[in-house]
Design brief:
The chain is globular, with a radius of gyration of 17 Å. The strands form two sheets. It has a seven-stranded parallel β-sheet, with helices on both faces. It has nine helices and nine strands. Strand 1 (3-7), helix 1 and strand 2 form a beta-alpha-beta unit. The chain has 257 residues and is of the alpha/beta class. Helix 1 (12-23) packs parallel to helix 2, helix 1 (12-23) crosses helix 7 (204-216) and helix 3 (63-73) runs parallel beside helix 4 (100-128).
């Protein structure tokens, strides 16, 4: 039986990955900051699906937390076959309105943790000749949107570059770029969502199903919805200056996952 490790596992897209992978018969390593919530989730998934669900409390904005997950990913006695780097958050406010400490914390979680955990997992997976990594980014990666969009753009570029370097090794890497997803993400960031059109919202479980299908196809980038695929096609044709004006008025306040 294979094992998947999921960061940010207790809510939103991470919880949807946990549900789907448990239903498919994968053992899990659930990573988040809230120990009580992790234990409740692990018990529920074990009882419902008969899988083993390990709990690992870690704060990925701290070196100790990243190191703890790195150590688990390199445990050759209990190998991890799939890593889902999902942990992340948003900051409310425009550039210079957000405290520098919060900006640096975001870069730590979105970039440094993703780099270190992907590297730890991919090294062990390459030795075994198989494995997969899903790094959760955002469609915000493709538009000018301050530190959040910039950090997610880094995730996309890093993942696709690493995927090319590991081609033929048996290790698959994919950047997942969702749009607006009905999760706790915006509430935690203190962001309003009342002005977001209904058609732009995605279901987390359907998103995960599409993402896993794209991973199985060997894709290095997944935009898992026809609506957002079409929207990103329009974005590619839109002048950057115009995009910057639009996102400065709406994107930072109502940013997607």
């Amino acid at each position: 039986m294979t094992t998947a490790l999921i960061t940010g596992a207790t809510a939103g897209i991470g919880a949807a990955f946990a549900r789907r992978l448990a239903a498919d018969g994968h053992n899990l390593v659930l990573v988040a900051r809230d120990t009580e919530r992790l234990r409740e989730q692990a018990t529920e998934l074990h009882d419902r699906h008969g899988i083993e669900a390990e709990v690992l409390r870690a704060d990925l904005s701290e070196d100790e937390g990243i190191a703890a997950v790195e150590e688990r990913l390199t445990d050759r006695r209990h190998p991890v076959d799939l890593l889902v780097n999902n942990a992340g958050f948003g900051n409310k406010g425009q550039y210079l309105d957000v405290p520098m400490a919060d900006e640096l914390k975001m870069l730590k979680v979105h970039c440094e943790a993703v780099l270190r955990l992907t590297s730890a997992a991919a090294t062990a997976m390459r030795e075994r000749g198989r494995g997969g990594v899903v790094n959760v980014a955002s469609v915000a990666a493709f538009v000018p949107r301050g530190t959040y969009g910039a950090s997610k753009a880094w995730v996309v570029q890093f993942t696709q570059g690493a995927a090319k370097d590991l081609a033929g090794s048996g290790v698959r890497l994919m950047a997942l770029c969702p749009g607006f997803v009905r999760t706790e993400f915006h509430q935690r960031a203190g962001m309003g969502t009342g002005n977001i059109p209904g058609w732009m919202w995605l279901d987390a479980d359907k998103l995960v199903a599409a993402a896993l299908a794209d991973l199985a196809r060997g894709r290095s980038l997944s935009i898992p919805d026809p609506r957002y695929k079409a929207l990103m096609g329009v974005v590619k044709l839109t002048p950057r200056g115009l995009l910057g004006g639009v996102t400065s008025r709406t994107g930072r306040k109502y940013g997607p996952q």
